[in-house]
């Protein structure tokens, strides 16, 4: 018999009982629907103990790696503490600004050093909290071994957080962050698989992290990155990515400009160019990051081009006018 801990209460779970049944027997309700491991309504996240492998059936590998499991098909083999991910507010920690450099007039590379443990996967995102309650999300471009959190911050017209970070936050300044969040990251479960990375604007940040993570782990399949901007003065890290493509024979980089000043670049939107150049995506793992419209429409198109839904990972930016 295993004990399960949820919502600060511990319950004894009978040998042939699922976590969902155990909670119900103790009068605790967890959202559920099919009760057969299909709809994923009852998905929870282990914070202590390891859920049985078959309780993670059908979940994306990225979720499995983070300890997510389905309560309706989980018969725990050991004590297990878990949370409902929808209820979990992660604690805020302090981070110091250790570097601010510009990619161009609008986009800044901001590096933060967290003051306590902050485990993450490159490509996940964190939230920055300002003292007045303003919160914005930024994707992480760095690798854990680098010892800092790298964010790419685009200055948005009238954007309160982005202008504050660009103009007022100084080197050595302290920020409050929480995270990491999201399942848009690389895992090395299939090093031969081809990867397709499509991003617009600072959607390059998570893709930069995913790309470097994959290369540092010796990914053998092809990695295709299509990065797009409206104009040539907004696209960034072009030389660095070209050099990386020279160094790694399995990495292919295409910089796309959708506006008129496209000399020296591939003309067109990154998602359209990508699907034109790689029309069949059977067996590919796809990462989509950037503007929500691009991400949502490309999700459908990459699925129709043959990528499995479980292999499509998306990080759409939250649009904010202030
Ligand atoms: S209730 Fe549907 S997967 Fe558990």
Automatic annotation (TrEMBL):
Report domain FAD-binding FR-type positions: 90-187
Q: Which coenzymes or cofactors are required? A: [2Fe-2S] cluster
Q: Which InterPro entries match?
A: 2Fe-2S_ferredoxin-like_sf, 2Fe-2S_ferredoxin-type, Beta-grasp_dom_sf, Cbr1-like_FAD-bd_dom, FAD-bd_FR_type, Flavoprot_Pyr_Nucl_cyt_Rdtase, FNR_nucleotide-bd, MRET
Q: In which domain of life is the source organism classified? A: Bacteria
Q: Which Pfam family is one of this chain's hits?
A: NAD_binding_1
GO MF annotations for this entry? iron-sulfur cluster binding; oxidoreductase activity
Domain 2Fe-2S ferredoxin-type, chain residue ranges per copy: 2-88
The molecule here is called 2Fe-2S iron-sulfur cluster binding domain-containing protein
From the broadest rank down, the organism's phylogenetic lineage runs: Bacteria, Pseudomonadati, Pseudomonadota, Gammaproteobacteria, Candidatus Tenderiales
């Amino acid at each position: 018999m295993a004990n399960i801990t949820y919502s600060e209460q511990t319950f004894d779970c009978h040998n042939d009982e699922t976590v969902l049944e155990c909670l119900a027997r103790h009068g605790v309700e967890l959202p559920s629907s099919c009760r057969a491991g299909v709809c994923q309504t009852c998905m929870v996240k282990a914070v202590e103990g390891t859920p049985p492998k078959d309780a993670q059936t059908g979940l994306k590998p990225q979720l499995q790696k983070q300890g997510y499991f389905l309560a309706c098909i989980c018969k725990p083999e050991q004590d297990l503490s878990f949370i409902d991910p929808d209820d979990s507010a992660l604690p805020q920690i302090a981070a110091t600004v250790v570097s601010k450099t510009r990619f161009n007039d609008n986009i800044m590379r901001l590096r933060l050093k967290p003051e306590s443990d902050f485990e993450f996967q490159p490509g996940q995102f964190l939230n920055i909290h300002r003292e007045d309650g303003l919160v914005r999300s930024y994707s992480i471009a760095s690798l854990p071994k680098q010892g800092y959190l790298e964010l790419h911050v685009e200055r948005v017209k009238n954007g309160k957080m982005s202008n504050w970070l660009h103009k007022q936050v100084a080197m050595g300044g302290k920020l409050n962050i929480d995270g990491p969040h999201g399942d848009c990251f690389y895992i090395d479960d299939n090093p031969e698989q081809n990867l397709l990375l499509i991003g617009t604007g600072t959607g390059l940040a998570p893709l930069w992290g995913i790309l470097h993570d994959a290369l540092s782990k010796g990914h053998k399949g092809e990695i295709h990155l299509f990065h797009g901007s409206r104009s040539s003065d907004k696209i960034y890290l072009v030389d660095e990515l070209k050099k990386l493509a020279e160094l790694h024979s399995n990495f292919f980089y295409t910089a796309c400009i959708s506006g008129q000043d496209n000399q020296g670049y591939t003309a067109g939107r990154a998602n359209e160019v990508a699907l034109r150049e790689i029309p069949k995506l059977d067996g590919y793992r796809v990462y989509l990051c950037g503007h929500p419209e691009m991400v949502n429409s490309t999700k459908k198109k990459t699925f129709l081009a043959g990528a499995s839904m479980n292999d499509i990972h998306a990080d759409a930016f939250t649009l904010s006018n202030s």
